[in-house]
Amino acid sequence: MSTTNISKKRKFVADGVFFAELNEMLVRELAEDGYSGVEVRVTPMRTEIIIRATRTQSVLGEKGRRIRELTSLVQKRFGFAEGSVELYAEKVANRGLCAIAQAESLKYKLIGGLAVRRACYGVLRFIMENGAKGCEVVVSGKLRGQRGKAMKFKDGYMISSGNPVREYIDSSVRHVLLRQGCVGIKVKIMLDWDPKGRTGPKNPIPDMVTIHTPKDEDESGVAKPFVGKEMEM
């Protein structure tokens, strides 16, 4: 992450590679601590890396020891100057609406020997109870016997195309190395519309229809005639 003059194209590629490598490192390092994504903020003074996790205390470590170790590791690997990179830990507001956290949860259930169907339905129910609009869990690989197959579990409403997918769908993919072979997990969560933007996107889905309550009186102030009954003279 040197500050030499490079073209915009090269800069975006370098930023993308940096983010992908950093994310991969944190996935491997903090998988058991409920790692749920990372955000990189570049300021003129320093680069801030915000790690989102369900168990922030484990990420910080005893007296902040682990976060200091991670900061040192990132600094050495990516060639940051001393004190120019800062790592922070942020708690996930609702882990039931985080696809990465749920994919990791399912991964550890399968490693623990829980039946695939039972583990998937458990994750599906937990996601829907936490206020998701819809979700989909796909598990593929050698689940039973020697032939590989895919099992799909769905609940609620799910969109697959158009621009709202970028805002409303949170998805994650994980690989589980089981005794019989490698099993793939894909979790897709559709968030619900939230005008405040806390648990979901602020922008409503374009095809959402809002039905307003009808007014009793006309704008002129004259009451509307009662339809369906003859008026007495």
Please provide a brief summary of the model.
This protein is of the alpha+beta class. The protein contains six helices and seven strands, in the order H-E-E-H-H-E-H-H-E-E-H-E-E. 32% of the residues lie in helices and 25% in strands.
Describe the structure.
The chain is of the alpha+beta class and 233 residues long. The chain is 32% helix and 25% strand. It contains six helices and seven strands; from the N terminus they run H-E-E-H-H-E-H-H-E-E-H-E-E. It has a four-stranded antiparallel sheet with strand order 5-4-7-6. Strand 4 and strand 5 form a beta hairpin. Helix 4 packs antiparallel against helix 5. It is globular. The termini are far apart. The mean pLDDT is 87.
What's the total count of β strands? Answer: 7
The share of residues in helices is: 25-40%
The number of helical runs is 6
Helix and strand content put the structural class at alpha+beta
How widely separated are the two ends? 87 Å
SSE topology string: HEEHHEHHEEHEE
The spatial strand order of the largest sheet comes to: 5-4-7-6
- Oligomerization category of the chains in this entry: single chain
